[in-house]
Design goal:
Length: 331
């Protein structure tokens, strides 16, 4: 007996993960960093994070319902929660509440919904919001309250990257500048001034490992970024040790860990292929250190990721696998 074979549209094989489960998996991975932030910066860190999450969800719901005029489902799928958390993690704990709300509006309204919503945005929404706030309110965005514990002697509320750049601009010897800064162990656990969620490399690494095990992200992009920064910094250190610090300093300070693990691995605004992700990571690592070394601003991770976000369509075009078959030309 002949049987008809019905071929349905792709995908033909579906995974068990949904958008909601993936998004809430990322939220779970951010809990260690949030815990460390509350431990070092107090309840102000938790308050700003909750405000950023609530306002991000509200603005996404509002835009979907009244501007796009569709069912506001994505406001509750976890993606707005991630945007809010990452945005809060990229600001100091002393930031005024109203600025946090405006930043959430820009992140959701401009960085995400203006492109059509989840899955269509070109740039990472949280970084769009952060850069907007940094340009609009540079004083508030670079005022760093001391954490709750005593740090190395002579250390102020400035970030390690800011202290380094200021010291070198004042022609202080590298050894003298580094003596004022916390130890590598302080950097690793988070005992330093900085943005709410960027200070603890350990907490972010735990979250990153969790996401890799859950297969929420690939390891290629963050590892490539770390390797690029380490190699570039090692070369500069070898050229002039009196001007450039150890590679581990650049790895453990600033927003490198949160940027490499959480922003650069955004499924929507990062390359699709492994080769493309490696190219993407190398670009982020190089641009980050170029800005740190020779830019006016001591940190460059956010700008590096946004710049490389813009190159993703080109990277995907030249790294996507070739199609099966052969093109036949007429004549």
């Amino acid at each position: 007996m002949n049987r008809l074979l019905t071929v349905s549209p792709s995908p033909h094989v579906k995974g068990h993960d949904s958008v909601r489960s993936i998004m809430y998996g990322v939220v779970i991975s951010l809990i260690p960093a949030l815990g460390v932030a509350v431990y070092f910066f107090g309840l102000d860190a938790l308050k700003l994070t909750l405000i950023a999450v609530a306002s991000s969800m509200f603005f996404e719901w509002l835009i979907q319902k009244f501007l796009i005029k569709e069912s506001p489902r994505s406001a509750f799928d976890g993606s707005a929660i991630i945007t809010g958390m990452l945005l809060a993690f990229n600001v100091p704990s002393s930031l005024p509440i109203w600025m946090m709300i405006v930043g959430s509006l820009v992140a959701i309204g401009v960085g995400k919904m203006s492109f059509g919503g989840l899955g269509k945005n070109i740039f990472n929404p949280a970084l769009v919001g952060r850069v907007f706030m940094l340009i609009s309110w540079p004083v508030e965005m670079t005022t760093w309250p001391n954490n709750r514990f005593h740090l190395a002697d002579g250390y102020t509320g400035a970030t390690p990257l800011g202290m380094l750049k200021e010291g070198l601009q004042n022609n202080e010897p590298m050894s003298q500048v580094m003596d004022k800064l916390p130890t590598a162990l302080d950097y690793f656990v988070g005992n330093m001034s900085g943005c709410i969620g960027e200070v603890s490399a350990l907490a972010l690494l735990i979250g990153g490992i969790y996401m890799v095990v859950r297969k929420i992200i690939n390891w290629q992009t963050p590892v490539t970024i770390f390797a690029t920064v380490f190699i570039f910094a090692a070369i500069m250190r070898a050229i002039n040790p009196e001007l450039y610090p150890e590679p581990t300093f650049h790895l453990l300070t600033g927003g490198l860990f949160i940027g490499a693990i959480y922003m650069a691995t955004d499924m929507v605004s990062s390359p699709m292929t492994i080769k493309g992700q490696v190219i993407f990571g190398v670009g982020i690592g190089i641009i980050t250190l170029v800005i740190r070394y020779w830019g006016a601003y001591p940190e460059g991770v956010s700008f590096a990721i946004l710049i490389m976000n813009a190159t993703v369509p080109i990277i995907d075009r030249y790294t996507k696998p070739k199609r099966f078959g052969e093109e036949v030309k007429n004549g």
